[in-house]
Each structure stands twice: as C-alpha cells, then as structure tokens.
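Progress narrative, work stream C.
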Amino acid sequence: MKATTTLNKIAGLKKRIRVIQGGQGAGKTYAILTILINHALSHNNKEIFIVSHELSKMRITVIKDFINICKSIGIYQTNTMKMTGGTHASFNNGSFIRFLGLDKEDIGKGLRSDVVFVNECNKVKFESYRELTSRAENIFLDFNPNAKFWVHDEVIKRNDSQFITVTFKDNEFLSQTEVDEILRYYSLGYDENGNEINPYWANMWRVYG
C-alpha cells in the first residue's frame, strides 16, 4: 500500500489530540483508518474506538473503508484479525477496534481507551465528545469545514492538540473524475481573476475544495 500525502501528514502528528480538517476527496478518514489498523497490529491489548453520529451511515462509509483496507493487506477474517457483528474487529495480539454510533446520548460515558477517533466530529455534540475522550490516551478528529463549531473554541487552542488541513490535492489516488468535479466548484464560483461570481459554488469550493 502506497502512502498518500494526506497519510504522511496525519502520521506526522504527535500530540494527544490530532485534529484533521479536510475537504472532499482528501482521503483523511481512509488515512486515519490505516494508521489505526497499523497501531492495532503493532501494539498488544489496545482498545480503539471509532465513533460517529450515526452507525447506519458508518456501515456504508467508514466500516466499508476499514474492511477494504484490511482486505488489501490480507488480514481480513484471518488468524490475524476477525470481524464480528459488523462492528467489532479483534486482533490476535489482544487489541480491538470497535465502531460506535452516537445514537444514544450515554453511549460514550465511562469509556476508557487507548484511541478514540471521532469521525465527522462537527456532527457530534461537544458534551458527547468530552465524555468519549476524557479518558482516552490518543484522540483523532476529522471534519469538513462547513462552519465554525466547538472544535475551534474548545480543542485546537489546547496545548496538547495539533491541527492540520488536507485537500484533494493531498490524495494522489483520487480519481480524475472526482478531481474534475471539485475543480468545477471553483470555476462556477469564481472568475479568472479570483473574484466571487456565485456565492453557492464559491462556498462549495471553500468547504469541499
């Protein structure tokens, strides 16, 4: 598996809280999953939780990517790693990765873990984030920059956090079809001099491009 620029940038983060803002096609979630799989394989008895606002959506996005990564490196449903219930991956060294949806307000209370990854954290309430991560040794957060939210006020200002931005340009394996679609946002939102001509498409570029 070849590393993208996005993967290298995220792997370079060393502080306890790693905040990754990324647009469409940046590959941020895929990169974080790759890092967490490697962490589970390389360390014994680690408890890793991947959470999002809705489990049903995770099944067709994050969990699907997770399974594809495991298949690509030849560990899916082998002696090395077994997936049960569609949401729990057990590794032969005692580590596990479990996927949780925040459908219930109290699901994260009392959770003690080595890593918590909050996917699309801008869709999660701050109190849920706090309860999920207060006992975690390491934290990953990712989101699209739709609007300012609690991560800007409560997280990235902390001394134990690092913040980076990645875009589609950092994902060398993104299809040309998707690259062209993202570039289209800019061409519809701005003229050749960079002046805004359409607020909707200009905002699409700012968020996803």
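Work stream C, second folded protein:
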Amino acid sequence: MNNDNELLEIDFLQILEIVKKNIIIFISICIFTCVLGFAYGRFYLPETYSATAKIIIVKDETNMSSSNVTSADISFSQKLAATYKQILMSEAISDEVLDNLGLSIGSGGYKNMVSVNAADNTEIMNISVTSNDPELCARMANEIVDVFVSKIYDIMEIQNVSILNRAKVPTSKSGPNEGKYTLYGLLAGLVICALIAVIKALSDTKIKTEEDAKNILDYPIIGMIPNFLEREVKYDD
C-alpha cells in the first residue's frame, strides 16, 4: 500500500513538473480555447429574445379584488400550477395558438420556444417565449395566455385565472450568453492541458531517481554512479 501511495505521489509531482516546464504553452492553449468559446457564442449562434406574460391563479376569479382570500385558497391555487403548466404546454393550447398566429412549427417547435414556471411560493405563473424575432415573442406569449384563459373553463370547469401582465416586445437580447461559452472554452482548454501532461508523464520511461529504480526493477540498490560533468580544464601559459 505504501509503495502504491509513493508511486501516486511521484506521478503527481511529475505531472506538476511537466506543467511548470510547459506553462506558457498551456496558458496559450487555454487562451485559444476561451477565444474560440467566446467567438462561437458571439458570432456563430443567432441572437435570441425572450418575452414573458404573467397569469395569476385564485380560488375564484371574483375573489381577486376581495380581502377574503384565505391561506387555503392560496395553497389550492399553488397546487393547480403544476396542472396548468401541463395544460399550457399541451396541444390543446399550442394548436390553437399556432393556428391563430399562422405558424407552422408544430407542437415540437412550440415546446422549444415556450417555457412555463410558477413563481416560488406564489400563485403567479410566468409564460415565456424565446425566439429570434422579438415581436413574435411578445405576440406569441400574449396569444398563449389569451387562449389559455378562454379555454380553461372548458378544460377544468373552473374560472380562476386572470392575466396579471401582458408580454412586451423585448428591447435587448436574452442570448446567447458569451460568458458561458467562454467558460466552456476554458474548461475544454484545462482538460486538453491535463491530457497532454498525463500523456507526457506516461510516455516518459526514463529512470531519474533511486526510488524509480527500486519501483521498476524490484531489486535492492547496491550503489549509484555519480553524474560527472565535463569541466573545461585551463592550463597556465
């Protein structure tokens, strides 16, 4: 067990030594992969925009302006959020929304563009649409909530949804995130550098120390030959 630990320590130190000797090369690799990641996110991926509409769920729509809403009503509304999320993403809603907007992207394209989530510990739901077209994002988000509000009674036989905020046309892009792709590039560069260091360490079969000889040959060492360096001998005139 001790021998194994010593081997691991020696290998790790060897890798560190390789990193020190090639530090400029490894830093250059990381910079290069970071630049590639940034360029991929900035110039290759298309810009995307997101617009969000909000709806609120209560026990009864008529109670929204009343002060008689209880904690049980709020808890009931929060539990409905998971069901309503599935309805919002279903073809019962998507087919009508796409038909009203004249889009032919199908339910798969709809699911790729639309995300629905409930705000933590509230009865508010956010319906977000992401697209390359900022105006389409807002129109689609608003159409989704309009269709949902109009159809929820036929589906659930309750009328407990109201539009809290309609979506507005986004003025700034939501993606891609260049910083995220730059970080991916850095991680890729570090992996490449680690692989290079490990490969160099594994391919180096030279015996450098007495300990190396013991581990590899498994024979006792009875002596060592010193390393005599050539020295320039100067003679007096």
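Helices lie at 2-21, 23-44, 71-88, 91-101, 106-113, 134-156, 178-203, 210-217. No further action is required on this item.
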